[in-house]
Structure formats: C-alpha cells, structure tokens
Amino acid sequence: MANRQSFKTDVSFLEKISIGATGTKKVFDDLKRQTHAPIELERGSMSFKIWKGIKIKRVRVPDILCVKCGKRVESRAKTKLQITMSHSIASPERGWDFGLNDEDFIALVSCKKAGEDPTDWKASDLVQYIQVNYLRKVFRDKKVITERPKGVEEGFETRISWPCAVASCDGTVVEINNRIKFKRTEDNRTISLSLKKKNITIKPIVTVNGVVKQDQIIASVVPVIQDFKCLGGRGASDYQKMLKSTSLSERYAAAKALSYFPKDLQVIKSLLEKMGDSKDHIYIRLEAASSILKLGQKESIDFFKEVLRDTYLENRLEGVIILGEINSSYSAELLIRVLLDKEQHPEIRAGAAWALGELKNKEALQALVTVFDDINIDVRSESARSLFRLAEIYSKEIIGLFPKGSEDVRAGISWALSKSGNFSVKDLSSVMNDENSRKWVAWIIGSQKQEKFITQIEELKQKDKEVYFAVTVLWKILSSWVSDLDIY
C-alpha cells in the first residue's frame, strides 16, 4: 500500500507540474501572437521534468520576459478558472506577489484534461492578463476573499481570491444591471451571474451585445485584458544597467536577456564582470556565464567546470541543466565528462544524461550507450530517455552501436529504438549477428504497429524465419483485445 500511495503522490505532483507547463507554453505562444519577443525567464516553467532527489531553490522571477519591451509575465494555469493565488502571512518569500513588480502581468489560462497520462493537458486559447498593481491595490483595500484550508496551523499557506464572475460557456451579453445575463450560444438559454461576491461588488468587463467565451472573466474587482501591446524600447544597454540593479530578480533577468542581443564587446565585458562577482548570487553568475557561452565566447568554460565541482549539489545540478540549454560543442563536452564521471553524484550524472538529450548532440551517442552498463538505475534510465530523443535523428548511428554492446547496452538501445520507431527492418536485420541480437531485433520490430512495417517484413522472412515468426506472434498478441486488459 505504501508504494501505491507514493506512486499516487508522484503522479499527482507530475500532473500539477504538467498543468503549469501547459499553461505557460500557451501564454508564451499568445505573447508571440501579440508581437512580443518572449523568453522563458523562470527555468523549467515550460518543462514536465521533475528532479526528485536534489531540490533547487531558484531565484523567484516571473515565468516569461519580453526582451523587446521588458514586460514580465507570471503564468497561472487553472483547472477551474478564477483569480486565485496561494499566500503566506508568515513568510514573505511565500507571499502571492513575492518577486513581482507593479508593472508585471499575471496571465490566467484554463487547462482541461486531454488524455489518461498525467502530462495530457490542453490549454484554452483564451489567455487573460491582469497587471500586478491592480491586484495589490485590491489586496491592500481588503476587497479579497481569504480562505484558510481546514486543519492547517498559523504560517501555512492560505488561498487569496479576487472576486470575479466567469462565463461557463460561449454566449452573447443581453443585459447588465445588478447581474450580467448572457445567452448561451449552444441553445440560447439565458445564464445569469451576480455582480456581488460575499458582499464585495464586482464591475462588468463586458458590454451588452458583446460576445463572451467560455472561461472568460466578465466581471471583476480588477481590470482584465486579453492583449497588451509590445512597445519595444529595451536594448542591450538597458539590460547592462539592470545587471547593477539592487533587485535580485532584475539582475537575473538582465543576465539572461543579454544573450538574445548581438555579440558586443561591452555586453561581453558586463557579463564577465557579473560572472566574476563572487558577492552576487550563484544563479545570477551562472546566467551570466550561460549568456557568455551562448554568444560564442569560451571565457565561461572554466567557471562551469568549477560549478560542476561545487560543494552544493543544488548548484551542480543547476549548472548541468543550464548547459543543456546551450547548443555548443563545449557544453556537450562538459556534460559528457559529468555523465562518465563515476565520482559524481548519481542525480548529477542523470541530469547530465537528460541535458545531453535536450542538446541532441551526435557526440553524446557513445557516452549515453556506455552508461547502460552503469550500476545506477537512474543514470541508465535517463540515458535511455535521452537516446530515444536522439534516435529521432541518429537511428542508423545508434543501430551501429548495437552489435558490440553487452546485454544491458542492447537493452537500452532496443528500448530507445522501439520508442522512437525510427528505423527500417533492413537496418536492424543487418545487426543480427548472434542469438541475443536476434531476440532484441524481434522485440523492437514486434513492439511496433503492424501496419507501419508490414511491407518490410517479407525481407526479414527471407533472411531469418525464426525472427520473422517471433515478430508476427508479438503483433498477434499485442493487437489482441486482451493485451491491455487489467485484473481490476
């Protein structure tokens, strides 16, 4: 039972991460639609990846930054759309608005389940924005609803809600008085929503005859918009000045943003100074080092080497994750070295394997395959997942590593090829040089959809009738109605 409960907890956490990442991706795309130049400011805000062993406490910043106008956006994905946020009165760092400026925006987007897997979520096309200064004013005026979850003690997080009315369906507004009435598009039924929430008056955001969408906020205590223009005006010199700001989040944003401007000697100089500032936060120095490498300069390589040997595992892991964002032979070389270093902590090595998969660098193939013989299952598992991502591009090169591999190496290669499906029967049949390889080839092909390879299978029949028979048996079993039948 304990294991099952732990599994449920992991799935629940992955689901929450996935909802947030799905929502942030939608906001990112919506900002591009509005001609902004968005970048991911908070690392991992658009990723489903979970680091279970080593917890990274990052600089708290909004999820997205427009490098052209400097506007920052915090994405909040909701399964039931309301203007709500968690808050702590005991810890400022857990306050709903910690790390936010008045000019920042909160973006709200509704997410619905789209499949059975924890990562299967779909975001609504409707993204709604609220500027932080309006939320703060209403919060100070105590026109919010505070709900403390049952059973918690002082200091635990509460839920703050800014009263609003949300359309449950598409429709057209027909009347506004002390209520908003709109006719549902589907069946012309009239829907009525009150303009009072727990004795707090909310203001209409729509007009009579206006069209409303499902999950649209149509009345609220704060202004809600669906677009805000990118006014531009931010250049490299502005971000260079921000590197000297007293605000931690502004220095962080500046260090990251500068990599998106053309290489300039003054920009490189500013970044080098920040990277070498031992008094500043290590993560700001890492962002500066990352920007230097992204701009094609090698001066930050030694700094990354130091970070990858840091006393604190959290800093090492952050360094590894950052290197996975830099499309450079230098970053790949550093990550390969970490992956193969058995003195490194297993999760750091697993992180390096994951990062190599993000880079999709051909030079990583041999290293990823080599660690399939490693004693640590997490290192092997993460390497297999990365090999799967590389198999989409380098399947023939991966198949070429199969013949000389051990049992564990062949298992990892087979899994990656099977998941990718990016191979031909002819390529696989060329590496059937012993009994063991014949079994793995049979499994790789037999685990695919029959219709995809049915035209290629005759060639296998001519070469090896036993493998051909095994493949056809697997197809028969896996296509049967009982293949996915469970006992409960």
From TrEMBL:
Pfam families the UniProt entry points to: HEAT_2
Domain of life: Bacteria
GO MF terms held by the record: oxidoreductase activity
InterPro entries in alphabetical order: ARM-like, ARM-type_fold, PBS_lyase_HEAT
SMART domains xrefs: EZ_HEAT (SM00567)
Gene3D superfamilies in alphabetical order: Leucine-rich Repeat Variant (1.25.10.10)
Protein name (record): HEAT repeat domain-containing protein
Organism encoding this protein: Velamenicoccus archaeovorus
Lineage of source species: Bacteria, Pseudomonadati, Candidatus Omnitrophota, Candidatus Velamenicoccus
